Amino acid sequence: MNIVSKEKSISRQRFGIIFMIGGAVLTILGIFMRYAFYVKKQMYDLPWFLVILGGVIIFYGISQYMDRKHLGGEVQFTGSKAKSFFLKYALIFSLFILVIIIISIQPNFMQWDVVFDILAQSSIKLIIALGICMTLLIAGTDLSAGRMVGLAAVICTSMLQTPTYANRFFPNLPQLPIIIPILIAIAICGLFGALNGVLVAKWNMHPFIATLATQVIIFGVCSLYFDTPPNKSQPIGGVRDDFTALAQTKIFNKVSILIPIAIAITIIMWFVLNKTVFGKNIYAIGGNMEAARVSGVNVFRTLMGIFILAGVLYGFGGVLEAARTAGATNQYGNGYELDAIAACCVGGVSLAGGIGKVGGIVVGVLIFTVIQYGLEFINVSPMWQQVIKGIIIAVAVAIDLSKYKKVLWH
Q: Rounded mean pLDDT of 25-29?
């Protein structure tokens, strides 16, 4: 008996042209709204957002049209392919839906200033998440991340106060070149990362237990340092302007310098994870540590590298956080690791190890920042914010895990 196929297809050429036309329509609409209806303030920067979205769609259509020989002459449409497509981009769709809901309540959310604020707030979180993602890729975790952020913030600010500040941490310390305290702070975090690596790689401790122990040690060390006379646990202030400029400088009076810094770190981490032997070994260990060891991967060296590099990223994030807030206490960074882990999971990093992409982590961090910023923007109670955030985490992770259930459970 012949089975009638329900599969439909169109040529890749026509598929690309459809997207190019759709993108052109959005672009023209945005330009028309910008110049014809700009007097209506409720539009805010929506026309420019439409122009950018139209440009992205046009670019996608052109790429499909130009690569039709490489991608295949036809595009097939089936129920399974549609489901796979929506699962693949579920996080992107959920982010768009969330933004639309916020805009419908508060139209002034559609402003470039809001976009730049969200990106700036995401920058340090992204750097920390990129550090912690490596520990998740090996089916581990790192609970010491937040405390390393706080330690780095306290160390660098304690040595970068203005000479005229009344309550200096080191009253007789001469003015140091800014790079020295920063490198000291990052190096100390790297040493604690090495301690995590030794506990995991040498003593075979589970990363959860190893980093939990290190977390407590780091907080104790930071608190003892913070309580050193004459400071006596007073918040560190009076930070030098050349230090705060690292995080507070605005490019073109609009864009925080944190944004290009985070982009640079993201590109570096993408290269490390995708184009180096070290990165490939991380995925191999996460997939199957014993198989990786048998195939010649130096597991000890790789694990040490993971935790040291993660510690360096946490330290750098702590330095930027201190520069952004122009001060520090021993409570800085508390709970940052939980937000980073959640963002990685929402971004598609599997807790079972071996699965996860840098692009997904970026989306995960943006989702959490938009949730926090957007819900505050529409005056949602902080208690309800926690409930909504938890629901979104559960739903997003459940959707994302469904893509990998055959890998995880079979």
A: 92
